[in-house]
Amino acid sequence: MSNTLPTRDHSSVPRVLDRLAAYSWRLIVVAIVGVAALWVLREARVVFFPIVLALFLTRALSPISGFLQGHRWRPGIAAIASMLLFFVVIGSLITIAVRSVAGEAASIRPTMAEAVDDIEDWLVDDSPFDISRDTVDDLRARAGSAFDDLTRSSDGSIVERATLVGEVITGVLLAIILTFFMLRDGRRFVGWIAHRWRGDSEQRVQRSLDAAWSALAGYLRGALLLGVVEAVVIGITLWIAGAGLIAPVVVITMLGAFVPIVGATLSGVVAVLVALATAGTGPAIVVAIVVVIVQQLDNDLLAPIIYGKALSLHPVAILISIVAGGALLGLTGTILAVPVVAVGWNAFRAYQPGGGKQA
Predict the structure, then answer these.
(1) Distance CA 82, CA 273 (A)
(2) 122, 201, 240, 350: most buried, per Cβ within 10 A?
(3) Cβ atoms of 274 and 251 closer than 8 Å
C-alpha cells in the first residue's frame, strides 16, 4: 500500500474560472486600497480640498500670470497681480448679486404667494388630476413644516457648523497660499517631479503631467463657455419675462456649469423658481421651456464641440463619476468628480508607452 498522498488535479478547474479567481483577488486588493485612499482623503479634507482648489485656480490664472511674466514681470509679482484680478472679479459678481437680492427682497414674498395660489387653483380646478383643495393645503403645510425642521438648529449642529466654518476658512487661506506658490514656482516643481525618473520614464511622466494639465484646462474652458452661453440666454429670458433677481441667477448658472449635468439642472430649477417668485406662473412656464431647450442644445450640440477631446470621457462615465463622487464625498465630491476623473484618465493614457500628447 502506497503512503503517497493524492495530489489535486488542477486541470479539473476550468480555465475561465481559474483566470476569474486570479483577477478577483487582485480586484479585491485594488478595491481595499481605493477605499482606504478615500478614507484618508475624507479625513484629510482640510488639506486635500485646498490643494485641489489651488490647482483649479492655478490653471485658470496661469495664462494671465504667464502673459505678465512674458512682459518681464517677476514671477512673484505676476502671481500676486493675477490673484488680485481674480478677487476683484469675484468680489464684483458677489456685490452685484447681493444688491440685486436686497432690492427685490420686499416684493418676493407676495409674488411667490400669489404664484403658489395660482398653481393650487389650477391643480384643483383645471388640471387633469383628481386633487382636492384639502390635499393641496395639507401638502403646503407639510412642506412648511419640513422647511422649519431643516432650518432649525440644535446645539450639536451648531458645533458642527462652527467646525465646518473653521475648516472652510482654513482651507481657503491654505488654497490662496498654495495658489501663489504654484503660480510662481509651478514650472520648476513640474520639472523637479519629472527629473525624479530616468530614461524613458522621465519622458512618460512629463507627457503625463502635460496631458493632465491640458485636460484640466479643457474642462475649465469648456465649463466656462457653456456657463456663459446658458447664463446669457436664461438672463435675457428672465428680463423679457419681467422677472427679477437676474444677476444672482446668472452667477448661479455660470457656477453650475462647473458641475456637469447636475449643476445645469439645479441652476435651471433656480431660474424657474425665481421667475415664479418674482413674475408669476406664466413667465415661470416660459422660463422653464427655455431652460429645457437651452440645456438640451448644450448637452447634445455645444458640449461635444466645446469640450472636444479634452476630457475623452463618455457621458455615462461622467454621470457615474458624479454619482460616485457625491456618494463618497458629498457636494465637494460631486463638483470634483468629473475633472478628477478626466485628469486622471488623460494622464494615464499619456503615460502608456506610445501614448503621445493628449488634447
Answers:
(1) 36
(2) 350
(3) no
Q: Give pLDDT tens digits for 188-219.
A: 777 777 777 776 777 788 888 888 888 888 88
Contact between 319 and 261 under an 8 Å Cβ cutoff? The reply is yes
Distances (CA, A) of 157 to 150, 151, 170, 204, 334: 11, 11, 20, 49, 23
Residue 223 near residue 257, CB atoms below 8 Å: yes
CA distance 73 to 75: 6
Task: State how far the Cα of 355 lies from the Cα of 359, in Å rounded to an integer.
Answer: 12
The three three-digit cell numbers of residue 282, written as one number? 406664466
Cell match 384643483: residue? Answer: 124
From CA 29, how far away is CA 35, in angstroms rounded?
10
Q: The C-alpha cell of 70 is what?
A: 512674458
CA distance 52 to 172: 11
Query: What are 78's three cell numbers?
Result: 505676476
